[in-house]
Design brief:
alpha+beta, transmembrane, DUF304 domain-containing protein, 8-stranded antiparallel sheet, transmembrane helix, membrane
Length: about 650
């Protein structure tokens, strides 16, 4: 949304200051940790190159993430620029002066012209849609009023419930897999892969919650996402069939290997000493596996994910329930159908008066009205019938957010917890540098050719312990980052929602028009007259008026208030409808002109004509005397001309 400056402020304030402050603080701390890591590069790279590069890579990553987060937070804290064309129109705006902004927002309008007209005429709202999918219907059954909250909030609630359901289904499927494997239905080979299956479950659940934390975007504000039950059925089928398939594959591999190496093993195993060495090797390998299993446990992380998921669902669904409590899905339209009237005006004069005089007085902060259906007037020249219509919306003005104390506290708690989890994830990554650099330093000093039976197991044991220590810290950081990102993105819409109030007017008028010719000013003694055409229109106006409460979501930076704006509530406005009709009839009746005069104007004209006739009557004797004197002065000239004419006729007769 371009910044179209105007001296009259629209009253839209920055809703992101608290969220931006916490984000900027976290970004500054992250950048500082990255700087501390980079300061160790110069000293470490001289003695241990691998350690120096480790410090450099992690330092650059932390520095970049910290600076990006700091900039993002400062953008939220700084001035919130709002142009004169904000917010987005409900439909395409046909106003001539607003074509630049209309083209920019064309992809983000929520309705078309036909839908706006249908909502006003039919007293219905196309915003609210029937839920699609198992998860959506379950959510709307538990929270019936969630149907009447904006799309982004519906989608976020549906998404987090879907993630919770997918997690429970995944745990159920893993239980089925464990049962199939433990009782031997999948064979005796599949049991050794249970740790792998558990780690796969952990990765899948983490991926589910990572996808659930996607940020708010414009597409999320245009409609409702769908989550079907087919994916759940497919997951259970996979968990039942995969162990059986793996057991068959392992059986084939073990049978091939056993057949291939059976002769070699029989040839080598000839003495007790070799068998003892093999048994010692198997014992050492078993000890290494036990050490690995003891150093890492999937159940701990699955429990942590379950705790975080319950907390996240509680916060997001609690905010959604409080927002749904404020919903008021009213669809009231004032349909004013005045009686048929007869006016002395052309049809286009009627529409022009309503468009340019009546509606122009409804401007808010001098901003032009939104024209969703431009004036379309038609007239049949054969029978004099005409009709026309137009749809306009006044400039939306912000509605103060009526927050309950519980809702505001939950928003603060969710945002604070989100930033805290993200900061903990950063600290865990930074803390993982200590065992990581210890391991890399130890790795730099090892000469593999000098490893023997005494130093080899110690090196392997140290490697496994360091690896699982680092891996444990990174897994914990990943889980904290996933749920911190989820809470940050899912609590953001509850800060960014802005509601507006405006009036939506649909004016229709039809009727007939006839043309008469009238002559004015032609009296008995008048020498001038005025002949003009007089139009008399019989009109049947109709007004559909509603006061709408619409909702949109603010963005950061250049995307301020460019999200689609949806109608949430429609209230009838009888007073506005009466005012519009009264002003229209008054404006038409006061049109100046000889062709359509009211009683007062006719009285003034009659008085003028009577005074003019009286003045003419009083001056009549004087004008007659002047005429007589003119005639007496011209008599001698007339007699001389007559005598000259008689002499000429006599001379002519003598000649003949």
């Amino acid at each position: 949304m371009s910044f179209e400056h105007g001296s009259l402020d629209l009253g839209i304030r920055n809703p992101f200051r608290f969220e931006g402050t916490l984000r900027a603080i976290r970004g500054g701390i992250t950048a500082l940790l990255g700087l501390l890591s980079l300061l160790n590069v110069a000293s470490a790279v001289q003695t241990h190159p691998i350690t120096g590069w480790t410090f450099a890579i992690i330092g650059f990553v932390l520095m970049a993430n910290g600076l990006w987060t700091l900039g993002r937070g400062l953008m939220q804290v700084m001035r919130f620029y709002v142009g004169r064309s904000a917010p987005t129109s409900l439909s395409y705006n046909h106003a001539t002066s607003e074509q630049d902004s209309a083209k920019r927002e064309q992809r983000d309008v929520a309705y078309d012209q036909q839908q706006i007209e249908s909502m006003l005429v039919g007293s219905k709202n196309y915003t609210f849609k029937e839920p699609v999918g198992l998860v959506a219907r379950m959510l709307h059954t538990l929270f019936p009023k969630i149907t009447f909250v904006p799309y982004p909030i519906q989608n976020l609630a549906q998404r987090i419930v879907g993630a919770l359901v997918q997690t429970l289904v995944a745990l159920f499927a893993f239980a089925i897999l464990s049962f199939v494997t433990s009782v031997g239905l999948a064979g005796d080979k599949a049991t050794i892969l249970m740790p792998f299956f558990a780690f796969t479950l952990l990765c899948y659940v983490a991926l589910v919650w990572f996808r659930a934390g996607r940020p708010l975007n414009r597409s999320l504000g245009r409609g409702i996402e769908t989550v079907s039950a087919f994916g759940f059925v497919k997951m259970v089928a996979v968990c039942v069939s995969v162990p059986v398939i793996i057991n068959v594959i392992l059986g084939k591999i073990f049978a091939y290997e056993l057949e291939h190496y059976q002769a070699v093993i029989a040839a080598q195993l000839r003495g007790l000493e070799i068998e003892v060495e093999l048994n010692e090797g198997m014992t050492w390998a078993t000890q290494m596996l036990d050490l690995a299993y003891n150093s890492y446990s999937n159940s701990t992380w699955l429990g942590l994910i379950f705790v975080f998921s319950v907390i996240s669902c509680g916060l997001v669904l609690g905010l959604t329930a409080l927002r749904a409590k404020q919903a008021n899905p009213t669809t009231e339209i004032t349909d004013k159908l005045p009686r048929t009237s007869e006016v002395g005006a052309r049809p286009m004069d009627i529409f022009n008066e309503f468009n340019h005089q009546v509606m122009e007085r409804r401007r808010y902060k001098k901003v032009p009205n939104r024209i969703y259906k431009p004036l379309s007037a038609r007239q049949n020249p054969n029978n004099g019938e005409f009709d026309g219509e137009l749809i306009q919306e006044t400039q939306p003005k912000t509605v103060e957010k009526s927050d309950e104390p519980v809702s505001k506290k939950m928003r603060i708690a969710s945002t604070s917890l989100a930033q805290a989890l993200l900061l903990i994830a950063t600290l865990l990554v930074f803390y993982a540098l200590t065992p990581l650099t210890t391991y890399t330093s130890f790795f730099d000093g090892v000469v593999f050719d000098q490893l023997n039976d005494e130093t080899g197991p110690a090196f392997v044991q140290t490697t496994i312990e360091s690896f699982f220590t680092i891996f444990t810290l990174l897994v914990a950081a990943t889980i904290c980052a996933i749920f911190g990102r989820l809470l940050s993105n899912l609590s953001h819409p509850f800060w960014s929602e802005i509601q507006f109030e405006s009036s939506l007017v649909y004016f229709k008028c039809k009727g007939t028009v006839k043309e008469d010719t009238r002559t004015f000013g032609k009296g008995y003694n008048d020498s001038t007259s005025l002949e003009t055409s007089v139009f008399t229109s019989t009109i049947q106006p109709r007004l559909f008026v509603t006061r709408v409460i619409s909702s949109t979501f603010a963005g950061i930076g250049s995307t301020n208030l460019m999200f689609p704006r949806h109608i949430m509530t429609m209230h009838g406005d009888e007073n506005l409808a009466d005012e519009l009709h009264h002003e229209l009839m008054h404006s038409i009746g006061n049109r100046a002109g000889t062709a359509a005069m009211n009683d007062e104007q006719r009285k003034v004209v009659d008085e003028y004509n009577s005074s003019n006739l009286q003045m003419k009557a009083e001056s009549a004797p004087e004008r007659l005397a002047n005429r007589s004197s003119e005639l007496s002065l011209d008599a001698p000239k007339a007699q001389a001309a007559l005598a000259q004419k008689e002499d000429h006729e006599a001379e002519t007769s003598l000649e003949n």
